[in-house]
């Protein structure tokens, strides 16, 4: 007796084709072949217009191509399909920042934090968004809360210290940079930050010491020529002003 032939499952075949397009698109995106990946993501979307991963991948491609308007469009579509899509909300926030729309970024990062409050990156970016809105007090509060909740998260210390420097609170900023060095002695930007703080406070000897430490840690930094020039200037000032009076 002949075996009964089964009809091919059309939906299953369609899903397989969509998955193949997505897998190929993902592979191309990871190889930085963004334009090629876009074509495959679009093919996947033509097969299934409700696949959040295809819209997400498409958004990431346009973000990498710096076409932020299109990136925002497709990432928003991904969040509509999957309202608890943390990564899509996070990337959406980054695209809003890149496009100079901090208010949109704030909304996206708040959504991401509500979905997963344990990830510090979205909280950090929320603080940055408030900075871009000229809401320094709110940004400082967010960075401080992040430091308290994630005491080893160096980026929070750095962003708070950088903002304090912009606000000319050099003493408090230097203390935060010192905390960074205790967490990671190889974090070269902290040495430059402390040196700059001491320089602004008129503490030239201390400034020179930390500028030298920065150059030892990062001799080929693009900031190295400026730091070296400042060191020479401080040496000249020390000779002409041995009492270390602020000028």
What does this structure look like?
This protein has 13 helices and no strands. It has 247 residues and is an all-alpha fold. The protein has a domain at 13-78: Alpha Horseshoe (Serine Threonine Protein Phosphatase 5, Tetratricopeptide repeat), CATH 1.25.40.10. The radius of gyration is 25 Å and the shape is elongated. Residues 1-7 have low confidence and may be disordered.
Provide the CATH topology of the domain at 13-78: Serine Threonine Protein Phosphatase 5, Tetratricopeptide repeat
Q: What is the overall pLDDT average? A: 91
What level of helicity do the residues show? over 70%
Report on the biggest sheet.
none
| Tally of contiguous helical segments | 13
CATH 2nd-level architecture of the domain at 13-78: Alpha Horseshoe
Strand share of the residues?
Answer: under 5%
What is the strand tally? 0
| CATH structural class of the domain at 13-78 | Mainly Alpha
Distance, first to last CA: 103 Å
- Residue stretches low in confidence (pLDDT < 50, at least 5 long) are 1-7
Query: What is the string of helix and strand elements?
Result: HHHHHHHHHHHHH
Q: Sum up the overall morphology in one term.
A: elongated
CATH homologous superfamily grouping of the domain at 13-78: Tetratricopeptide repeat domain
Q: What's the gyration radius in Å?
A: 25 Å
Q: From the helix content, strand content and strand pairing, which structural class follows?
A: mainly alpha
